[in-house]
């Protein structure tokens, strides 16, 4: 680990959705900067593989389950002696469009992971960090949670707007206790979440890329570096802030 951050000093960070895409890239980036990593995901084999690669700990974790959050925090504390932070990257898309059949179950499943799963992290990890008097939480929303409306997925977009509100509210509540909360808003990033778009149709990829000012989709590592910025002391005076990383699409 050549690029070790002296401020990391064995501090442990829980990364939800750590088995795949942006979460997995965040695990690698944090480990490369000297953080201890707790890879949290409901996917066991992929999560264990990332944990082995980064010398971290895997915890099987459904972010919509309060008990799983308590287990994850205890496992992290047992292994690393405490926790420094959380990157809440677990998420699902819903494809719940205006003309979709009315489906309360689909809406609730999307909210449960993308929004309630973040709320639980802010509560359970936030309280633990508050007791310690220091720490940093990063939530992953989406450029689709910023105006102008860019995605037709009603359920997904509403949860990403929700993450922004949750994060700012928690940032205010936790700031007096030395705990920071910031949000990264990715544009279109090449991960399994959008594999249906990018693997199926090269022409569509060309069209999407041409519409992005920087001329391409983003890579997971480019979001991971933004998460690292907020987890580390590089961002020591930032809380309640939002960083859009979208190749200029919202510019
Ligand atoms: N890829 C993009 O273009 C893009 C754009 C904007 C925002 N995002 C957001 O970035 C985050 C990461 O997405 P990604 O693109 O890396 O997707 P991904 O599908 O590669 O990874 C998501 C991970 O979340 C995990 N997960 C899903 N439900 C879970 C649950 N209930 N409990 C625990 N883990 C669960 C999955 O198992 C998976 O490993 C998501 O919040 C997503 O909404 C992605």
TrEMBL record:
Report which superkingdom the organism of origin falls in. Bacteria
Carries keyword Oxidoreductase?
Answer: yes
Q: Which Gene3D superfamilies match?
A: NAD(P)-binding Rossmann-like Domain
| Matches recorded under SUPFAM superfamilies | NAD(P)-binding Rossmann-fold domains (SSF51735)
Q: Which Pfam families does the entry mention?
A: adh_short_C2
Q: Which UniProt keywords apply?
A: Oxidoreductase
* InterPro entries registered for this protein in UniProt: NAD(P)-bd_dom_sf, Sc_DH/Rdtase_CS, SDR_fam
Question: Which family, according to the similarity comment?
Answer: Belongs to the short-chain dehydrogenases/reductases (SDR) family.
Cross-referenced PANTHER family: 3-OXOACYL-[ACYL-CARRIER-PROTEIN] REDUCTASE, SHORT-CHAIN DEHYDROGENASES/REDUCTASES FAMILY MEMBER
- Name it: Glucose 1-dehydrogenase
Q: Which organism is it from?
A: Nocardioides humi
């Amino acid at each position: 680990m050549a690029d070790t951050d002296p401020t990391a000093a064995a501090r442990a960070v829980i990364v939800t959705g750590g088995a795949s895409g942006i979460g997995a890239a965040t695990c690698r980036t944090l480990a490369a900067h000297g953080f201890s990593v707790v890879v949290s995901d409901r996917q066991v084999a992929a999560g264990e593989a990332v944990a082995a690669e980064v010398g971290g700990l895997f915890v099987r974790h459904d972010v919509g389950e309060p008990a799983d959050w308590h287990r994850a925090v205890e496992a992290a504390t047992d292994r690393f002696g405490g926790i420094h932070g959380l990157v809440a990257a677990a998420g699902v898309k819903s494809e719940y469009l205006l003309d979709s059949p009315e489906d309360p179950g689909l809406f609730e499943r999307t909210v449960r992971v993308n929004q309630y799963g973040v709320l639980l992290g802010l509560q359970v990890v936030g309280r633990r960090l508050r007791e310690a008097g220091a720490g940093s939480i990063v939530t992953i929303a989406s450029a689709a949670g910023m105006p102008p409306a860019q995605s037709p997925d009603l359920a997904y977009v509403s949860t990403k707007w929700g993450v922004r509100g949750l994060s700012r509210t928690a940032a205010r509540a936790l700031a007096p206790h030395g705990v920071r909360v910031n949000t990264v808003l990715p544009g279109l990033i090449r991960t399994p979440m959008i594999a249906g778009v990018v693997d199926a149709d090269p022409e569509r990829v060309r069209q999407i890329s041409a519409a992005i000012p920087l001329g391409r989709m983003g890579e997971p590592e480019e979001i991971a570096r933004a998460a690292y910025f907020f987890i580390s002391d590089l961002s020591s005076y930032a809380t309640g802030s939002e960083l859009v990383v979208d190749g200029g699409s919202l510019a």
